[in-house]
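Dear colleague,

Thank you for sharing your sequence with our group. We've completed the structure prediction you requested, and as agreed, I am returning the results in plain text so they can be pasted directly into your records. Please verify that the sequence below matches your submission; if there's any discrepancy, let me know and we will rerun it promptly.
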Amino acid sequence: MAFEPHDAITPTNLPPFAQRMRDAADVVWEEGYRQPFIRELGAGTLPRDTFAFYLIQDELYLNDYAKVHALAVTKTDDNEVMAFMAQVQHAIFHVEKTLHNEYLASFGITAQDMRDARQSAFARAYTANMLATAYGEDLIDILVAVLPCAWVYADYGQRLAREFAGTLDSNPYRSWIDTYCTDEFWQSSVWLIEHIESIAATLDEPRKRRLIEHFVRGVEYAELHTHTPYKRRPLMYIHEGPLCKNIGALCAAVYSRTRRMCSTSSRLERR
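Please find the predicted structure tokens below.
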């Protein structure tokens, strides 16, 4: 479907470069939506300990995600860009973390537990990639690095809300879905897509291809961020150490992800 520039940007009406990024990431994007964590979240059957692990890791992730947006401000003199980065940070600390805190309290996870928590290896790889981009690359690279998180969550939230509409009232994770299915949350992706599109129009093809690779890698990390809690249940990094270690599952996930990333890179090279 051709982009209609006079219509609003939606998941089905994307400008050309955004569509290229989305198409390149399609395999892992759709695989992420089909993974057990997302399916059980939508159905309301996700085990509490699995969701608790995810919440702890996502809380730690958001701390670094906020830092990436703060670093983006140092890469521009554009007031609109700086204002957007400040708005995202406000949303992190006053919307997403509020949601997290409500769930964490219901699971009996204390503020001290969170202070003592450690990032999983996968979460650390995800945030390290974004922080390295924020420190060492240009503004366009940072925008592309943070887009997958916003876009994937908005897409999954909207799709879960539609698919499981008949059972949401009894879903213990409804507030998570409600947070990410809104048009307000989607507008963060729209802002990023518009600005990436504008800058990408000035770049040569090799530079665009590198950005697409960055985007696909970000989607891989976002998918792994929600995949890991399910595979490693009930691993929790708190001050008393891991409750259990499943090295086999960890290695299998790494191997599978590496093979897919190599396959994706080969596909991008043929584009």
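Summary note from our side: Residues 72 and 127 are 15 Å apart (CA to CA).

Kind regards,
the structure core
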